Amino acid sequence: MKNLTFSLMLMAATQIAAAQEWMKMHHTDENGLDCTIPVKMQQGVKTDMSDNEGLITTEIPKEDGSTFSFPFYLDELDSISFARSLSDTEKGHNKYRPFVMNILTDDMQYIEDRDVWLNCLITIDGKGEYSDFCGTGRIRGRGNSSWDWYDKKPYKFKLDSKSKLLGLEKAKNWNLLANYRDVTDMMNTFAFETARSMGMPYTNHSRYVEVFLNHEYIGLYQLTEKIEIKTNRIEMDEATGLLMSFDQDDGPDLSPDDGDNFWSQIFKLPVCIKSPEGYTKEQIDSVKAEFAVLEKAVKTRDIAKVEELMDIPSFISILQMHEFLYNVEIDAPRSIYVHKAKDGKYTFGPVWDWDAGFDFDWSNMYEGHTFFSNYRELIYGTDPVNYTNAEYRINKFWLSLFGNATFVKQYKEAWQQHTTAVVEQNWAETKKYADALAKEGAYERDTERWPLVVSDWWSTTTFEPATELGKMERWIKNRKNYLDGVIAAYPAGDNEIVPLEVNVVKTIQKSQAVSFSNGYTQSGKITITQNDITTALGGAPTSLVALDTNGEEGNNTANGEYGAWFDEDGNTNSWGKGHVYIESDDLYSWNFGCHPQNCQTGDRHIVTMQYRRGNNAVNVEVTFYVN
Asked: In this structure, what is the dihedral angle of CA atoms 282, 284, 290, 294, given to the nearest 10 degrees?
């Protein structure tokens, strides 16, 4: 009788389509969630009821003239209803609620990787708050550690037609964030709200959706925009606008064959050009040279020149957000975006990827959910330009300007302007999402689907959203109050321009044979006479860095606090392209070795380490002979 009733309803659908634009198939899952699949009748939907087993085969027309077919058994349905489209004035616009998204792939294929796109149908039940959605597109996996480490996978999808989703502006490209590591599901949302209150441009929005993939419930996801130069996204000319990211994963070290990245000339930041795509080597070299002009201004603390080239308020905001939310991935760095119109300034944003902040416990990063332990740790320290009391020694590009009085004044004023809002306003807004997820059971269903339990040999810990939200709120408030005092006490700096070229007082040359057979596991030692260095510098050195052949500070790709892997030309490079290395946690005693595949008998490599103290420096040139 059920199949017959549904059959009659479907047969009548074409007759009432003019008045009732949507056919909605309702199914209540085992957790009591109404899984509604809305299909817009005016899209030319054809429904085949000829199958004797009660199989509905619905065909959705695509832009290319083909159709996307998806099956549904009548026995799986509770009801079918028909509805007209609601006008904007009839909608509730409650953005905080969890909505329901259905994703159906061609032939119900699994989404197995980040490279292969699968054709799909996506529907969203707007629950009367926003328009329902039904459209075709393609979907695949996304993310780096979030894809590799966790069972709950994040996705990206590209619609065939630009569409508004749950009130967000029209676009084709969208992201579904799994937030598996973040029990609260609110870390990215709080970061977005904080960035928006700081005035950062093109900040993403949040909508929460409970997702069914090929009729299987896969949990709670955060729907948000893709970062790209497009209408309704980063509003710039797509042909001439530039979008870059500072990102170790997408940079030349971990993605050396991508052809869209480079090491920045002066600070050796890993840079990836996100847009435009398809840049030639010459165009990439031009971007690198242009960015080096900004790098030089930052390194010399020429604040007037920096203001000509970079939007300082956005730079201050991105720095304050990383310190406030203790997002230590600025150390790598990862997921830091900057955009620039053809004749405009380098502007930081949109912000992205904050579930590694909030004092995440990296010791259990593959399966852990521990955050909020300590609100007193500092990425930049109490005197950022000198790393005083800093937990990390991040790239000096981020900290050099703290030696400039004008910048420090601007930084302190900006924090004073935002310090109240970052807790009171932004947390209150974020809490509305969390309260709605709890009230409508989304947290409970997601936790049941993905139990957040971590066990070791002495204990078992269960992570509950309500408990973690309480910790998060307390941590944010304590963190804000603590930083009020730290930032107010930053040293004032001065307004002197620091010479770019360091004064090389003395060069010490060492020759040392290394054994190819021992490779990079050997324990060779180079001992530097401390008195030679302190005498030349007029005191104890404050830092020791690896140099590239152009005399600029290189990138430390070795394991120690000091040193680097050096390539065949004597420039710092990745392990894979390295020939010899120096690495040490001791200023005056260094380990060294060579790469067993890259080095050959008879090779001779000259590399340079540099001791620094103020504007003075001593180069130690080491010549390696591979026997």
From this structure: -160
Alpha carbons 409 and 580: distance in angstroms, whole number? 44
Dihedral in degrees, nearest 10, Cα atoms 614, 618, 619, 622? -130
Return the structure tokens found at 324.
């406030």
Q: φ, ψ for residue 164 (rounded to 5)?
A: -80, 135
Residues in the chain: 627
Q: Give the type of residue at 580.
A: V
Q: Work out whether strand 118-125 and strand 133-141 pair parallel, antiparallel, or are unpaired.
A: antiparallel
Taking only Cα atoms into account, the Rg of the chain, rounded to an integer number of angstroms, comes to 28
CB distance 567 to 586 below 8 Å: no
Q: Rounded to whole angstroms, how far apart are CA atoms 161 and 45? A: 17
Please state, in angstroms and rounded to a whole number, the distance separating the CA atoms of residues 79 and 70: 18
- pLDDT 10s digits, 486-523: 999 999 989 888 765 433 333 445 555 556 556 556 56
Q: Give the separation between CA 464 and CA 256, rounded to whole angstroms.
A: 41
Average pLDDT over residues 113-133: 93
Comparing 2 with 20, the larger pLDDT belongs to: 20
- Quote the Cα angle for 230-233-234, to 5°: 80
> Which domains does the chain show, CATH number per domain?
2-225 (no CATH), 503-626 (2.60.40)
pTM: 0.80
CA 403 to centroid of chain Cα atoms: 28
- Lookup: tokens for 8: 């009659």
Cα separation, 251 vs 256, whole angstroms = 7
- Strand order in 336-340's β-sheet? 261-263, 270-275, 242-246, 336-340, 347-348
What's 624's DSSP letter?
Answer: E
Look-up of token digits 């981020």: 398
DSSP string of 82-140?
EEPPPPGGG----TTSEEEEEEEEGGG-----SS--EEEEEEEE-BTTB--EEEEEEEE
User: Which candidate, 575, 539, 560, 574, places its Cα nearest to that of 609?
Assistant: 560
352, amino acid identity: W
Sheet bearing 67-73, strands edge to edge: 46-48, 55-61, 67-73
Residue among 226, 216, 224 nearest 104 (CA): 216
Query: What is the signed CA dihedral for 46, 51, 56, 61, rounded to 10 degrees?
Result: -30
